[in-house]
Amino acid sequence: MAKYYLMPKGLVERIGWIQTPVWLLEASVFYLLLGFARIVPFRVAAVVFSRLLGKFGYYNEKKRRVVRRNVSFVLPDASETAREDVVRQIFRSTGLAAAELFLLGRLWRRRARHLEFSIHPEAQAAFDRKEAIVFATAHVGAWQLCNLIGREYGLTISVIYTQEPNPWLHKFFLARRRAFGGPLVPSTGGARELMRELAAGRSVGAAFDTRIDQGEMVPLFGVPTPTSTLPAMLAQRGYTLVPIRAVRLPNCRYRIEVLAPLSPSAPDAPRTERILDLTRQLNALFESWIREYPGEWVCMKRRWPKPDPAAAKAPDV
Question: Side-chain half-sphere of 101: how many Cα atoms within 13 Å?
Protein backbone atom coordinates (compact mmCIF):
# COMPACT_ATOMS: atom_id res chain seq x y z
CA MET A 1 0.00 0.00 0.00
CA ALA A 2 1.07 3.59 -0.54
CA LYS A 3 2.89 5.21 2.35
CA TYR A 4 1.54 8.63 1.38
CA TYR A 5 -1.39 9.47 -0.89
CA LEU A 6 -1.38 13.28 -1.04
CA MET A 7 2.25 14.27 -0.46
CA PRO A 8 5.44 13.26 -2.31
CA LYS A 9 7.21 10.52 -0.39
CA GLY A 10 10.64 12.09 -0.88
CA LEU A 11 9.51 15.45 0.51
CA VAL A 12 7.97 13.94 3.64
CA GLU A 13 10.97 11.74 4.35
CA ARG A 14 13.36 14.68 4.01
CA ILE A 15 11.42 16.44 6.77
CA GLY A 16 10.88 13.56 9.17
CA TRP A 17 8.82 15.38 11.79
CA ILE A 18 5.94 16.08 9.39
CA GLN A 19 5.11 12.39 8.86
CA THR A 20 2.50 12.24 11.63
CA PRO A 21 0.78 15.52 10.62
CA VAL A 22 0.70 14.36 6.99
CA TRP A 23 -0.79 11.01 7.98
CA LEU A 24 -3.45 12.77 10.08
CA LEU A 25 -4.23 15.13 7.21
CA GLU A 26 -4.56 12.29 4.71
CA ALA A 27 -6.79 10.29 7.05
CA SER A 28 -8.98 13.38 7.56
CA VAL A 29 -9.38 13.77 3.78
CA PHE A 30 -10.43 10.12 3.42
CA TYR A 31 -12.99 10.44 6.21
CA LEU A 32 -14.36 13.63 4.63
CA LEU A 33 -14.73 11.82 1.31
CA LEU A 34 -16.47 8.95 3.09
CA GLY A 35 -18.85 11.38 4.78
CA PHE A 36 -19.71 12.94 1.43
CA ALA A 37 -20.22 9.54 -0.21
CA ARG A 38 -22.62 8.46 2.52
CA ILE A 39 -25.01 11.39 2.08
CA VAL A 40 -25.36 11.28 -1.72
CA PRO A 41 -26.73 8.63 -4.10
CA PHE A 42 -24.20 6.06 -5.23
CA ARG A 43 -24.36 7.35 -8.80
CA VAL A 44 -23.33 10.84 -7.64
CA ALA A 45 -20.49 9.52 -5.47
CA ALA A 46 -19.21 7.39 -8.36
CA VAL A 47 -19.16 10.35 -10.78
CA VAL A 48 -17.56 12.76 -8.30
CA PHE A 49 -14.88 10.30 -7.15
CA SER A 50 -14.11 9.29 -10.73
CA ARG A 51 -13.63 12.88 -11.88
CA LEU A 52 -11.93 14.19 -8.74
CA LEU A 53 -9.46 11.40 -8.06
CA GLY A 54 -9.00 10.80 -11.75
CA LYS A 55 -7.92 14.38 -12.31
CA PHE A 56 -5.58 14.59 -9.32
CA GLY A 57 -4.14 11.14 -10.03
CA TYR A 58 -3.44 11.98 -13.65
CA TYR A 59 -1.34 14.97 -12.64
CA ASN A 60 0.93 12.75 -10.56
CA GLU A 61 3.78 12.62 -13.06
CA LYS A 62 5.45 9.55 -11.61
CA LYS A 63 2.26 7.49 -11.63
CA ARG A 64 1.30 8.76 -15.07
CA ARG A 65 4.66 7.62 -16.46
CA VAL A 66 4.19 4.12 -15.00
CA VAL A 67 0.65 3.78 -16.35
CA ARG A 68 1.72 5.02 -19.79
CA ARG A 69 4.42 2.37 -19.98
CA ASN A 70 1.99 -0.38 -18.94
CA VAL A 71 -0.55 0.76 -21.53
CA SER A 72 2.13 0.71 -24.23
CA PHE A 73 2.42 -3.06 -23.74
CA VAL A 74 -1.34 -3.55 -23.80
CA LEU A 75 -1.97 -1.35 -26.87
CA PRO A 76 1.31 -1.40 -28.82
CA ASP A 77 -0.36 -0.57 -32.15
CA ALA A 78 -2.63 2.20 -30.89
CA SER A 79 -1.89 5.84 -31.59
CA GLU A 80 -0.35 7.99 -28.89
CA THR A 81 -3.64 9.90 -28.59
CA ALA A 82 -5.63 6.69 -28.12
CA ARG A 83 -3.22 5.38 -25.50
CA GLU A 84 -3.32 8.67 -23.61
CA ASP A 85 -7.11 8.49 -23.53
CA VAL A 86 -6.84 5.03 -21.95
CA VAL A 87 -4.35 6.40 -19.39
CA ARG A 88 -6.90 9.05 -18.38
CA GLN A 89 -9.62 6.41 -18.15
CA ILE A 90 -7.42 4.33 -15.83
CA PHE A 91 -7.00 7.22 -13.42
CA ARG A 92 -10.75 7.81 -13.46
CA SER A 93 -11.22 4.12 -12.72
CA THR A 94 -9.17 4.50 -9.53
CA GLY A 95 -11.70 7.08 -8.32
CA LEU A 96 -14.57 4.80 -9.24
CA ALA A 97 -12.90 1.91 -7.38
CA ALA A 98 -12.62 4.16 -4.31
CA ALA A 99 -16.35 4.92 -4.42
CA GLU A 100 -17.12 1.21 -4.73
CA LEU A 101 -14.97 0.37 -1.71
CA PHE A 102 -16.28 3.25 0.41
CA LEU A 103 -19.90 2.26 -0.27
CA LEU A 104 -19.44 -1.50 -0.44
CA GLY A 105 -21.86 -2.01 2.44
CA ARG A 106 -24.56 -0.02 0.64
CA LEU A 107 -24.00 -1.95 -2.59
CA TRP A 108 -24.49 -5.20 -0.67
CA ARG A 109 -27.60 -4.04 1.18
CA ARG A 110 -29.13 -2.90 -2.11
CA ARG A 111 -27.80 -5.82 -4.10
CA ALA A 112 -31.14 -6.42 -5.83
CA ARG A 113 -30.63 -3.01 -7.45
CA HIS A 114 -26.88 -3.19 -8.09
CA LEU A 115 -25.66 -6.80 -8.34
CA GLU A 116 -26.15 -9.84 -10.50
CA PHE A 117 -24.23 -13.11 -10.44
CA SER A 118 -23.13 -15.48 -13.20
CA ILE A 119 -21.76 -18.81 -11.96
CA HIS A 120 -20.29 -21.51 -14.20
CA PRO A 121 -21.88 -24.91 -13.42
CA GLU A 122 -18.51 -26.46 -12.50
CA ALA A 123 -17.83 -23.62 -10.06
CA GLN A 124 -21.35 -24.01 -8.66
CA ALA A 125 -20.63 -27.69 -8.05
CA ALA A 126 -17.53 -26.71 -6.04
CA PHE A 127 -19.69 -24.25 -4.05
CA ASP A 128 -22.19 -27.01 -3.30
CA ARG A 129 -19.41 -29.30 -2.08
CA LYS A 130 -18.25 -26.53 0.30
CA GLU A 131 -14.71 -26.84 -0.98
CA ALA A 132 -11.92 -24.49 0.01
CA ILE A 133 -11.43 -22.52 -3.20
CA VAL A 134 -8.64 -20.27 -4.50
CA PHE A 135 -10.39 -17.34 -6.22
CA ALA A 136 -8.09 -15.54 -8.66
CA THR A 137 -8.85 -12.13 -10.10
CA ALA A 138 -7.10 -9.08 -11.57
CA HIS A 139 -7.33 -5.34 -10.90
CA VAL A 140 -9.81 -4.93 -13.76
CA GLY A 141 -13.30 -3.47 -13.41
CA ALA A 142 -14.85 -3.59 -9.94
CA TRP A 143 -12.49 -6.30 -8.66
CA GLN A 144 -13.15 -5.44 -5.01
CA LEU A 145 -16.76 -6.59 -5.34
CA CYS A 146 -15.61 -10.15 -6.11
CA ASN A 147 -15.49 -10.96 -2.40
CA LEU A 148 -19.26 -10.48 -2.18
CA ILE A 149 -19.63 -13.88 -3.82
CA GLY A 150 -19.02 -15.35 -0.36
CA ARG A 151 -21.93 -13.48 1.24
CA GLU A 152 -24.25 -14.33 -1.64
CA TYR A 153 -23.52 -18.08 -1.68
CA GLY A 154 -22.70 -18.75 1.97
CA LEU A 155 -18.98 -19.27 1.42
CA THR A 156 -16.34 -18.34 3.98
CA ILE A 157 -13.71 -16.38 2.05
CA SER A 158 -10.78 -15.03 4.03
CA VAL A 159 -9.89 -11.50 3.00
CA ILE A 160 -6.10 -11.18 2.77
CA TYR A 161 -5.07 -7.55 3.13
CA THR A 162 -1.89 -5.50 3.31
CA GLN A 163 -1.66 -3.24 6.34
CA GLU A 164 -1.48 0.49 5.67
CA PRO A 165 1.65 2.22 7.04
CA ASN A 166 -0.60 5.09 8.19
CA PRO A 167 -2.26 3.76 11.39
CA TRP A 168 -5.34 5.97 10.96
CA LEU A 169 -5.86 4.88 7.37
CA HIS A 170 -5.27 1.29 8.44
CA LYS A 171 -8.33 1.53 10.70
CA PHE A 172 -10.25 3.30 7.95
CA PHE A 173 -9.68 0.60 5.32
CA LEU A 174 -10.14 -2.23 7.81
CA ALA A 175 -13.62 -0.89 8.57
CA ARG A 176 -14.45 -0.74 4.86
CA ARG A 177 -13.21 -4.31 4.28
CA ARG A 178 -15.54 -5.72 6.94
CA ALA A 179 -18.31 -5.37 4.36
CA PHE A 180 -16.72 -8.32 2.50
CA GLY A 181 -18.24 -10.55 5.17
CA GLY A 182 -15.24 -12.86 5.64
CA PRO A 183 -12.36 -13.11 8.12
CA LEU A 184 -9.75 -10.36 7.71
CA VAL A 185 -6.25 -11.82 7.57
CA PRO A 186 -3.08 -9.66 7.32
CA SER A 187 -0.73 -10.63 4.51
CA THR A 188 2.37 -10.59 6.71
CA GLY A 189 2.51 -14.39 6.57
CA GLY A 190 2.50 -14.49 2.78
CA ALA A 191 1.88 -17.88 1.19
CA ARG A 192 1.88 -19.58 4.59
CA GLU A 193 -1.10 -17.49 5.61
CA LEU A 194 -3.03 -18.60 2.52
CA MET A 195 -2.13 -22.23 3.20
CA ARG A 196 -3.30 -21.92 6.79
CA GLU A 197 -6.67 -20.53 5.74
CA LEU A 198 -7.19 -23.18 3.08
CA ALA A 199 -6.20 -25.98 5.46
CA ALA A 200 -8.85 -24.69 7.86
CA GLY A 201 -11.46 -25.10 5.14
CA ARG A 202 -11.79 -21.42 4.27
CA SER A 203 -11.54 -20.12 0.73
CA VAL A 204 -9.12 -17.35 -0.20
CA GLY A 205 -9.02 -14.81 -2.97
CA ALA A 206 -6.58 -12.27 -4.35
CA ALA A 207 -5.63 -10.29 -7.45
CA PHE A 208 -2.65 -11.96 -9.12
CA ASP A 209 -1.95 -9.55 -11.98
CA THR A 210 0.76 -7.55 -10.22
CA ARG A 211 4.52 -7.96 -10.72
CA ILE A 212 6.27 -10.35 -8.34
CA ASP A 213 10.01 -9.72 -8.60
CA GLN A 214 10.83 -13.26 -7.51
CA GLY A 215 8.13 -14.75 -9.75
CA GLU A 216 8.49 -16.93 -12.82
CA MET A 217 8.94 -15.27 -16.21
CA VAL A 218 5.57 -15.92 -17.84
CA PRO A 219 4.29 -14.10 -20.95
CA LEU A 220 1.75 -11.32 -20.56
CA PHE A 221 0.75 -9.64 -23.79
CA GLY A 222 3.56 -11.57 -25.44
CA VAL A 223 6.30 -10.26 -23.16
CA PRO A 224 7.80 -12.45 -20.38
CA THR A 225 7.33 -10.76 -17.01
CA PRO A 226 7.76 -11.87 -13.36
CA THR A 227 4.49 -13.54 -12.37
CA SER A 228 3.21 -15.17 -9.21
CA THR A 229 2.77 -18.92 -9.52
CA LEU A 230 1.13 -19.13 -6.10
CA PRO A 231 -2.45 -19.82 -7.31
CA ALA A 232 -1.19 -22.57 -9.60
CA MET A 233 0.91 -24.09 -6.80
CA LEU A 234 -2.12 -24.11 -4.50
CA ALA A 235 -4.15 -25.78 -7.25
CA GLN A 236 -1.52 -28.53 -7.44
CA ARG A 237 -2.03 -29.10 -3.72
CA GLY A 238 -5.62 -30.08 -4.43
CA TYR A 239 -7.47 -26.77 -4.07
CA THR A 240 -9.88 -25.67 -6.80
CA LEU A 241 -8.57 -22.66 -8.76
CA VAL A 242 -11.47 -20.47 -9.88
CA PRO A 243 -11.12 -17.22 -11.89
CA ILE A 244 -13.55 -14.49 -10.90
CA ARG A 245 -14.20 -10.90 -11.98
CA ALA A 246 -16.74 -8.12 -11.44
CA VAL A 247 -17.88 -6.32 -14.60
CA ARG A 248 -19.26 -2.78 -14.50
CA LEU A 249 -22.58 -2.48 -16.30
CA PRO A 250 -24.70 0.57 -17.19
CA ASN A 251 -26.86 2.24 -14.53
CA CYS A 252 -24.52 1.45 -11.61
CA ARG A 253 -24.98 -2.29 -11.91
CA TYR A 254 -22.35 -5.00 -11.61
CA ARG A 255 -22.13 -8.59 -12.78
CA ILE A 256 -19.91 -10.86 -10.70
CA GLU A 257 -18.75 -13.63 -13.02
CA VAL A 258 -17.36 -16.91 -11.67
CA LEU A 259 -15.67 -18.89 -14.43
CA ALA A 260 -14.96 -22.59 -14.77
CA PRO A 261 -12.16 -23.92 -12.55
CA LEU A 262 -8.78 -24.11 -14.27
CA SER A 263 -6.97 -27.40 -14.74
CA PRO A 264 -3.62 -28.29 -16.38
CA SER A 265 -3.68 -28.92 -20.12
CA ALA A 266 -1.56 -32.04 -19.55
CA PRO A 267 -2.54 -33.60 -16.18
CA ASP A 268 0.27 -36.18 -16.40
CA ALA A 269 3.03 -33.63 -17.03
CA PRO A 270 5.67 -32.97 -14.34
CA ARG A 271 4.49 -30.74 -11.50
CA THR A 272 6.64 -27.77 -12.56
CA GLU A 273 5.17 -27.86 -16.06
CA ARG A 274 1.61 -28.07 -14.69
CA ILE A 275 2.23 -25.02 -12.50
CA LEU A 276 3.60 -22.99 -15.40
CA ASP A 277 0.74 -24.11 -17.64
CA LEU A 278 -1.89 -22.95 -15.11
CA THR A 279 -0.07 -19.65 -14.65
CA ARG A 280 -0.06 -19.11 -18.43
CA GLN A 281 -3.79 -19.88 -18.53
CA LEU A 282 -4.44 -17.34 -15.79
CA ASN A 283 -2.35 -14.67 -17.52
CA ALA A 284 -4.21 -15.34 -20.78
CA LEU A 285 -7.51 -14.76 -18.97
CA PHE A 286 -6.20 -11.52 -17.49
CA GLU A 287 -5.11 -10.42 -20.96
CA SER A 288 -8.62 -11.00 -22.33
CA TRP A 289 -10.18 -8.99 -19.47
CA ILE A 290 -7.71 -6.12 -19.92
CA ARG A 291 -8.19 -6.06 -23.70
CA GLU A 292 -11.95 -5.89 -23.17
CA TYR A 293 -11.71 -3.01 -20.66
CA PRO A 294 -8.22 -1.44 -20.98
CA GLY A 295 -9.35 1.78 -19.28
CA GLU A 296 -10.44 -0.17 -16.19
CA TRP A 297 -7.13 -1.91 -15.48
CA VAL A 298 -5.79 -0.17 -12.38
CA CYS A 299 -2.07 -0.64 -13.07
CA MET A 300 -0.36 1.97 -10.91
CA LYS A 301 2.84 -0.05 -10.53
CA ARG A 302 5.31 -1.14 -13.18
CA ARG A 303 4.18 -4.51 -14.54
CA TRP A 304 6.94 -5.39 -17.03
CA PRO A 305 10.69 -5.47 -16.34
CA LYS A 306 12.74 -2.40 -17.16
CA PRO A 307 14.80 -2.61 -20.34
CA ASP A 308 18.27 -4.03 -19.84
CA PRO A 309 20.70 -1.13 -20.59
CA ALA A 310 23.52 -3.58 -21.32
CA ALA A 311 21.38 -5.41 -23.86
CA ALA A 312 20.37 -2.15 -25.49
CA LYS A 313 24.04 -1.20 -25.98
CA ALA A 314 25.16 -4.60 -27.22
CA PRO A 315 26.61 -4.48 -30.77
CA ASP A 316 24.79 -6.22 -33.59
CA VAL A 317 26.10 -9.66 -34.37
Answer: 20
